[in-house]
Automatic annotation (TrEMBL):
It comes from Nocardioides humi. Residues 1-43 form the signal peptide. This is Uncharacterized protein. Keywords: Signal. InterPro entries: TAT_signal.
Amino acid sequence: MTASTTPRDTTLTIRGRRRLAAATAAVLAAASLPVLLTPPAGADALVRQTATLTTSIPGKPAAGTPAYRQIQQASVVVEYPAGGSYAMVTANITLKAAPPSTGDNIVQIGLGRQSGGNCVISNRRSDTGTKVSYDLTGVETPPSGSWDCVVARVGPDYVGSTAADYDVMIGPLTNTYVAPQVSVGEVELFGASQGKLKLVPKVARRYWVTVRNPGEVDATGVVLRATGKRIKSSEVVVGTLAAGKETRVSVPIKLTRKQRTTVELTVVSGSASASRKLKVKPVAAPARPRPGIYRSKNGVTFSVKKGRIVGWNGRMQTRCGGYPDPLTYTQNAYDFPSTKIPRDGVVDAHHTGANYGTTLRMRIVGGKATKGSFTYSGPGRCFASVSFKAKRR
């Protein structure tokens, strides 16, 4: 199959009436192209357009035109991948008979936008041969984001010829819109899924919440909120979540009084929203961390002074690089700034430098630190992490 996408400037004239303006316009009476409908409320993204053409424009085909120069039916499906600026075009033109030899006909699908009663063509695909059916499939980029009309033609040459077309069909594209979808997944603390939240009153604790987009289109402006009686939190901006993807975000939740309640986690993207409820139970504060030096079996050391983690230091393997560059591995020492220990004993601290970021998490009660983890990410696609348990010495 061959395809032509080179613009031409010649205007095709049929019986004194302008039908196709070669690379720029295909013209039909205004009454033949209906006014486009406004997208339905809440349907934010155009994902598909379709058209099936079975009726020729007035005067086509002319009397006596051979069957192999007449269109039986034309169809087109345009699909817009999520997040892309291009479109997948799957089109077909079926003639009433097979041409006797290659070159007798040129079949062509043109896509464009309505302007008054005109279909102004911006993209087209062509073919020739001795077949009855022609598949015209490929990737195209709409100059204005999408098209709204289609032209099917069979003629003696590509658009731009001064010869008259044998047959022409024109019609609007029918749009399919899809609203974004979002959902709330697992709620985790130290990697464990939480069915119920146990909170020390008046102490904010960060939970990791999985936010998903199970839909066909990107969800934009995504935010996560935690609400409920005696619940205090702040809105978390997720941003754009690609179709079929998920992400984990950290949300702070504080129980303001020593009473049971329910927290509702709600994710919103435009008109789309989803929520999940979890019971909240107040619990007593654990034993305060004991001052002193803490060490782990894998080389992590830190001190507890005046309710803060100070002098955290660890040695671990660092991985840098990645395709197309080879991976490199080195042993490096890392530290972490002094950070306050919340009254519930759960440390979830983050530090951002000029070109790197680190996190430190642990649960510290009495003289023991458990569930400990440290991560580093920096320039050169370098990453390091370590898990640890530490005791006061």
